[in-house]
Design goal:
single chain, 465 residues, mainly alpha, MgtE N-terminal fold, CBS-domain, Tetracycline Repressor, domain 2, three-stranded mixed beta sheet, 24 helices, magnesium, CBS domain, membrane, CBS_dom
Length: 465
């Protein structure tokens, strides 16, 4: 009895965690029980619908297209969290007219995100089938350059005139709200459609019906240019805790808005992109289950690092005479190179993060370099002294301990500076600083530390023999 109760509780906990009965939905699909499936499925949150849609097998998934209307599928599609290349496969499963109607029912910015993953011929085909109004709206957004404010904004927003009353504004809001992506902010425009103010939904509701909008709106409205980089927009929304941000052209005409859910996607995308570059991998947005595709993404960096590694090998070869006379020197090459590489990567992470988050704009680059140089001096001195003592106790040779300690000190100091200056230099050249990846900076510091260590050893060779 206790086991049965326990099993029942475990099953209930599992269902509570899933928020839906997956087995019931699958059984309804297999038995083609339309009424049971719709009664359960349409009650779910769009996130849970998307999660079920992603997990169900292909044969049953195609049945969903007959059980759900294009409008219902559009809401589900907006919540999908799948690899970009999978959109093409999913749309291919649908009837073209069904897919086009679904895309036209999605928010324009979300539909554009999907269409950007398709071939141009497919995009033209879907736009041709769509209704004219949706197609026109999507075409306008498709023209904007990727990764800019224009590419992630939505045109489904509510705008009111400054020369109208609260009563008429509320009438417009009630009519347009069902199609708007958000109504927490209502933007105010003049007769030329230029952005002149903003009013919150709360202020609009509590104001008297006959008050003019121009009297209660806030003229201090912050906006972003349509060509502004999406990362800068994300930073601005984070700094000011906005739920939405208006997008304007160079003449300050209101073109669209960017909502917080789009910015969360941007932040995730940018973080993944930076981490990919820091790891020396072309793309970490998706997990490649095909080993050949995964290898294809990693090989370019690995081959480049292979050639850099050959420089290190050639450098060690040039000190062959020194190593022949004092073979014990070879034992400490990995230690010094490894510590320099790790230190450089730490400094690199600090610099790249400062640039990515905008924190570096609040602090001068000179201050950052001075601070990191001081950090390099402290860590280099500490690690150098510890290394000297360990080598002296281990090998019983004072000068060898001093050589390793001094090499560690100089290598860590130089590696810290390199890890800071390289991304700053790339940022100045308008190159993504994350390109100065961990593997890249580690290999560079291997070369520098090896040159310092073996160079000092050759210089003071007589004291080592």
């Amino acid at each position: 009895m206790e086991e049965a109760v326990k099993e029942h509780n475990n099953e209930k906990e599992k269902q509570d965690k899933e928020m839906y009965d997956e087995e019931l939905l699958i059984r309804a699909l297999r038995q083609e029980d339309l009424d049971l499936f719709r009664s359960e499925f349409t009650q779910l949150h769009s996130y849970d619908q998307a999660k079920f849609f992603s997990k169900v097998e292909d044969e049953l998934r195609t049945r969903l297209y007959h059980y759900l209307s294009p409008e219902e599928m559009a809401e589900l599609f907006e919540s999908l969290d799948i690899d970009e290349e999978d959109y093409q496969e999913l749309l291919a499963e649908m009837n073209p007219s069904y897919a086009a109607e679904m895309l036209s029912n999605m928010y324009a910015d979300d539909a554009v995100d999907v269409l950007n993953e398709l071939d141009k011929e497919q995009v033209v085909s879907y736009l041709t089938i769509m209704d004219d109004e949706s197609a026109k709206e999507i075409k306008e957004l498709l023209h904007y350059e990727e990764y800019t404010a224009g590419s992630i904004m939505t045109t489904e927003f509510v705008a009111i005139s400054q020369n109208q009353t609260v009563r008429s504004a509320m009438y417009i809001l009630k009519n347009e709200a069902p199609n708007a992506e958000t109504i927490y902010y209502i933007y105010v425009v003049d007769d030329d459609k230029k952005l002149v103010g903003v009013i919150s939904l709360r202020d609009l509701i509590i104001s008297h019906d006959d008050v003019m909008i121009s009297e209660i709106m806030s003229e201090r409205v912050m906006a972003v240019g349509v060509s502004e980089d999406q990362e800068a927009v994300a930073r601005q929304m984070k700094d000011y805790d906005f739920l939405a941000l208006p997008v304007v052209d160079f003449q300050h005409h209101l073109l669209g808005i960017i909502t917080v859910d789009d910015i969360m996607d941007v932040m995730e995308e940018e973080a993944s992109d930076d981490y990919s570059k820091l790891a020396g991998i072309a793309d970490l947005d998706s997990i490649d289950r095909n080993p050949f595709n995964a290898a294809k993404k990693r090989l370019p960096w690995l081959i480049a690092l292979l050639f850099l590694g050959m420089i290190t090998a050639n450098l060690i070869g040039r000190f062959e005479a020194t190593l022949d006379k004092v073979a014990i020197l070879a034992v400490f090459i990995p230690l010094i190179a490894g510590m320099a590489g790790n230190t450089g990567t730490q400094a690199l992470a600090v610099a790249v993060r400062g640039i990515a988050t905008g924190d570096l704009e609040k602090e001068s680059k000179v201050s950052l370099v001075i601070r990191e140089a001081g950090t390099g001096l402290i860590t280099g001195t500490t690690c150098g002294i510890v290394a000297s003592l360990i080598v002296y106790v281990w090998k019983g040779t004072l000068f060898l301990g001093m050589l390793v300690g001094v090499s560690v000190f100089i290598s860590l100091f130089v590696a810290t500076l390199a890890g800071t200056l390289v991304p700053l230099f790339m940022h100045k050249l308008k190159v993504d600083p994350a390109v100065a990846s961990g593997p890249f900076i580690t290999t560079i510091n291997d070369i520098i530390s090896t040159l310092i260590y073996l160079g000092l050893a050759t210089l003071f060779l007589n004291y080592l023999i």
